[in-house]
Amino acid sequence: MVKEYETLVYLENINYNYDSFHLKNINLEIKSKKSYYIYGPCGSGKTTLGKIICGLLKPCSGKIIINCLNPSMILQNIDNQFVRSVVSDDLAFGPENLGMGKNDINNKISYYSKLLKIESLLNRNISSLSSVEKIKVAICGIMCTESPVIVMDEVFSYMDYEQISFIYDLEEKCIDNNKAVIILTHNKNYLRKTDDVFMLKDGILCL
Ligand SMILES: Nc1ncnc2c1ncn2[C@@H]1O[C@H](COP(=O)(O)OP(=O)(O)O)[C@@H](O)[C@H]1O
Ligand SMILES: [Mg+2]
Fold this sequence. Notes:
The protein is α/β, with parallel strands linked by helices and about 210 residues long. Helices cover about 30% and strands about 25% of the residues. Helix 5 links the parallel strand 6 (about 150-155) and strand 7 (about 180-185). Adenosine-5'-diphosphate (ADP) binds near residues 18, 19 and 40.
């Protein structure tokens, strides 16, 4: 059981370099039961930082402690998120890799697909889904693994107001369930009062 405000991911003086871009001295603590909002212009390093938080990229220097199992990310390029063709098969992939039993996996898919309102999509081919439907399937897949940290990279870009409100509600449910949610976006209009807010500019994270 995750305690309230437990540190799930800790970054200290993190640097990451591509040839012509540097993420510089990032300090950030991701805690359970909290939502984070990291905004900044295109090319400011949001996706790179998200991948570091989830352990998908290894920092060039600095200290990172990932104090939880499987922190996860909804990828900005959503088509890269999926490994199987049919929605229900893809939803099973993460839990299978964590060694969950078949019954447990089916229960999770059933529960979270209802929560995400995607039950009608379970037998669909992923390539036939709209962008918003793909994002919901990706979130559902991550929730089926009970990941305690969910990074959402530019998920609002394809959404209308109703869909965005739906994601906010989902964020609240995640927080109530001791998770941390990190929203990465170029648009600061979607900021919520409850979020911890950071701005990324040219690879530097500011309050
Ligand atoms: N694999 C890569 N190799 C070289 N440069 C990269 C790579 N991935 C991203 N970059 C560059 O790093 C910068 C930050 O990218 P990114 O983290 O995607 O920013 P954001 O998500 O804020 O748009 C951009 O200039 C981008 O072109
Ligand atoms: Mg990005």
